[in-house]
Structure formats: structure tokens, C-alpha cells
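Async update (no meeting this week)

Hi team, since we skipped the sync, here's where things stand on the single-chain job. The sequence we agreed to prioritize is pasted below, unchanged from the tracker. I ran it this morning and attached the output directly underneath so nobody has to dig for it. Comments welcome in thread, and please keep replies under the output.
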Amino acid sequence: MGNLKTDIQQVFNVLNQEKLCSGYYKNISNNICSIEKLKLNINDVPRGTRPNVKMLCVILTINFQFDKNGISPDKYNFCFEVSAYNGKEKHKASWHFDYDTTSSSEYIHPFFHLTYGGNLMDDIDLGKTVLFPAPRIAYLPMDFVLGIDFILSNFMNIDRYNNILAKKEYKAAVKNSQERLWKPYIQTIANHWDKRISLPPNYFKSTELIPTLL
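Output:
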């Protein structure tokens, strides 16, 4: 699996070679990583970005602790802010990855989740946000049933959603669609590491589902 500290340093070496990064604080041990305000200058602006900008500045703050049991939820933070200029006007967007095991949330709360916006955008005029066609986050496939459940589970109070989920006919429909669509998807990805897991017939390759798999 490799040594975490070595792997991170290797990535920093490449970033420095390519002259991509600057202005950061770094503290890395074998199990702990703390990187504050790592600045990445990117000239390749995704097509379809609005407004029309020439260069992006991505600032990352990453803190996590990792051991044989996985990532520690109370020591995990990964957020990135993207700034771009249209003339003299600064535009901004931000995302953060959360590892949050809170059980008292009013809404569905996956332990690992991506959130757009957050505290980094609290102080900006919404007319100065920048809109991207990225990131494109791999997600489980949807049909009508799973699409409706996705909307309800994310935008409806968790108590009301659970009342709907408790209805036998609704729960059965969601479970059946998960079996049809999610099971082959997850089996294909799992097979990437464990060939004992049977692949569904005539399905996609794992790297077609998550192109960054190695």
C-alpha cells in the first residue's frame, strides 16, 4: 500500500517540477497530514466555465489522520476554493469533502460526502460566483425510482423521509431498483481489487465507471 508520507512527498515533487504549486504550510508524518493554503495555478480552464476567465487559482486546505482502521472523522478536513478573474472582478466557488458521522442531522448525512459552497462562500456576492462543468463526481446510476429517492432523501427532512421509506410499497420499489442498478455497479468496482467477486455479464469496465482507477 505504500508509506503515506512518502506518497505525499512524491506528489509534491511532481507539483513542484511542473511549477503548479506555491504558498503552503505542510506538516506530514506517517499517519497525519496537515497542508494549509496550498495554491495551485491552473491555466486549463474547463470549457463551459462562466464567466469567461483565463486562469484558475485553486487553494486547498487538507487535514487528516489515517491509521489501519481508516480515516479519523474528528481529524478530517478537505476543502478547496477556486478563484478566477474576469477583468478585475474576482469570482469564486468552493467545495469540501466531509467525513462526518453525525447521527442527529435533520437531513440524510452520508459519512463521506461532497458539498458545494460552505463557509468559504459565506462572505461573497452570489453574482460573483464562478460556475464550472467540473468536478464530475462518479455516482451510482439512477432510474426514476432511485432518482426520486435521491431528491427526497437529500432535500426532505429526515423524519419525513423515513416516514415515506417506511411505506412497504415505496421501500420495495427502491430496494428492487438498487438490486437492478447498484449491485452490478458496485460489484464491477469491487472486482477491480478482488477478482473473486463475479462480474455482471455484458457490463461496463470498472475504469469506465471510475476512469481514475489504477
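Quick observations from my side:
The helical segments are 4-17, 144-155, 158-165, 168-191, 206-209.
The first helix runs from residue 4 to 17.
Reply here if anything looks off.
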